[in-house]
Amino acid sequence: MIGQLSGRVVALATCGIVVVVAALAALSLGEVRNAPVYLLALLLGGASVVTVLLPWSAQRSRAVAVAVAVAVVAVGLLVVAVLPDGRPGYALWYPAFVWLPLAGLALRGFPVLAVTGAVLSGTTTVLWAWQEPEAAAVQDGLYRVVSPTAAVVVAVGIAHLLRQYGREVQRVHAEQLEAARLSAGAHAAEQERRQQLSQVELIAVPVLRRLRDGAPVDTRLATECRLLEAAVRDGIRGRHLVDPVVRDSTWAARSRGVDVTLLDDSGTEPGAEPPPVADVVRRCLVMLLEQLEGGSVTARLAGRGTGTVVVVGPSVAELAGVCRREADRVEGPVRLVVDPVEPGGNELVLTVEERPDR
Questions:
Q1: N or C: where does the chain have the smaller number of CB atoms within 10 Å of the terminal CB?
Q2: Which DSSP letter does residue 167 get?
Q3: Alpha helices for 290-346 (secondary structure H)
Q4: 48 phi and psi, to 5 degrees?
Q5: CATH says 238-354 is which class?
Q6: What is the pLDDT along the chain (358 residues), one digit of tens a residue?
Q7: CA distances to 142, 234, 347, 356 from 351, in Å
Q8: At what angle do helices 244-255 and 135-212 cross, to 10 degrees?
Q9: pTM for this structure?
């Protein structure tokens, strides 16, 4: 949290306070009962202020914070132990070395530790003031308790507001990122739809023009209309499986009587990148369609990063050998698995999946 404040402003303000505190401490140096203990308290207070302003490593932050709190409590114990009898007005400087480091702890994310340090320091001062018979001691004790405690409470409140502000900023940033993602997804989906429509237009326009011009609906035209309907269906049901090469191969294979079904069940959003297995599935599909003269082929992208190509028809054993050679050439994050073909069987199953070591 401290990092959000201006470093120059914090440094200048802290230096000014430390200079004033050192001057006040010097005024009381000749009146205390034990000057070395008094100087040790002054050094501990200054060290705690400097420490709370320095950067901390994440691994040691809690230990450093505890050390600062202990030093603050020790400052109070050392100072009140050497104050002159009947002279409670001396050493009014040390409350600054109580609230400065404890307020820094609160702003750095340790509010409980800061409040605990303030309570312990205040308890020490109250016990000292209780033992002094003079009324001035009571007033002096109240000052030494109220001023640092109030500063720590204010710092805890500021830290709470800063945390709320930080959470609000993160929430707004997350909403902006989500809005940008949705906008990019919608734009990509629109681009994908336009691309699919342009691909359909390449094969649909000639057929539709012939129908518009009154061409007789003979067997050839009916076949082209059936193939056109299948191509449109592929673009809807097999989105990530269709590219220009696959579209031409499926058109040619269906013209030869091969039943082709393309299914994209990967669950990817429109406009998103295709699954990693899609490229290998398309390559295997084109390779098989170029060699088939009948039967059926079903290519499917699954939702768990896998894809399958199932061929039902004659000569699947020969096709299995071709696919095994293709599997040896597959590289990258996916692999091609060719299931064994039973003797006399007519079904070939290819599975494309991500490598387990990835």
A1: C
A2: H
A3: 316-329
A4: -65, -35
A5: alpha beta
A6: 444 455 567 667 777 777 777 777 777 777 777 888 888 888 888 888 888 888 888 788 888 888 988 888 888 788 777 776 545 455 667 788 888 888 888 888 888 888 888 888 877 777 766 665 554 555 566 666 777 788 888 888 888 888 888 889 999 999 999 888 888 777 776 776 777 777 667 777 777 787 777 778 777 878 888 888 888 888 888 888 888 899 889 989 998 889 999 998 887 766 667 888 899 999 999 999 998 888 999 999 987 778 999 999 887 888 888 888 888 888 888 889 888 888 777 899 999 988 776 5
A7: 80, 20, 13, 14
A8: 40
A9: 0.50
C-alpha 95/C-alpha 17 separation (Å) is 12
Long-range contacts for 184-188 (Cβ within 8 Å, ≥24 apart)? Answer: 184/271, 185/269, 185/270, 185/271, 185/272, 186/271, 187/271, 188/270, 188/271, 188/272
Angle subtended at Cα 140 by Cα 139 and Cα 146, rounded to the nearest 5 degrees = 85
SS3 263: strand
φ, ψ at 333 (rounded to 5°): -80, 0
Q: Which residue in the block uniquely carries the two structure tokens 């699947």?
A: 316
Q: Please state the domain extents for the chain.
A: 2-176, 238-354
Residue 97 in tokens: 């070395």
How far, in Å, CA of 129 to CA of 79, rounded?
Answer: 13
